[in-house]
Amino acid sequence: MQDFFTWLGRTLGEIIRFVVDLLTHFFQNLGASARGFFDGLATSLGIPATVVSLAVLLLGLWLLYLALRALMRRSLIATLIWAVLGVTVLSWLIY
């Protein structure tokens, strides 16, 4: 009977160890993948790969998204305003 519980404990420990190792490798690779994605994005745009430049990029893209939404509502003045602001922010970033 004791051998059964020893086997059960060992098997349960190996399963837990396998799951922990699997999750550790997954999250390490996820971080490396995200870092590689942002480095490739920054390199292709010609911008430094800093948090500030990526935040400015997201701001410019968000402004262009607002211009697209205004265009879908057929509001031409708002479309022009959002588009000019978005292009201006992106032109500051991409030189």
Give an overview of the whole structure.
This protein has 95 residues and is an all-alpha fold. It folds into two domains: 1-45; 48-95. Helices cover 88% and strands 0% of the residues. Helix 2 packs antiparallel against helix 3 (76-93).
In short:
88% of the residues lie in helices and 0% in strands. The chain is an all-alpha fold.
* String of helices and strands: HHH
The biggest beta sheet, please?
A: none
**How many helical elements?**
3
Helix content: over 70%
Number of domains: 2
Contiguous runs where pLDDT drops below 50 for at least 5 residues? none
From the N-terminal CA to the C-terminal CA, the straight-line distance is 74 Å
- Broad shape: elongated
Indicate the structural class: mainly alpha
Estimated radius of gyration: 25 Å
Percent range for β-strand residues: under 5%
Average pLDDT, rounded to a whole number, is 88
Task: Walk me through the topology.
Elements: H1 2-45, H2 51-72, H3 76-93
Helix pairs in contact: 2-3
Question: What descriptive keywords fit this protein?
Answer:
95 residues, mainly alpha, elongated
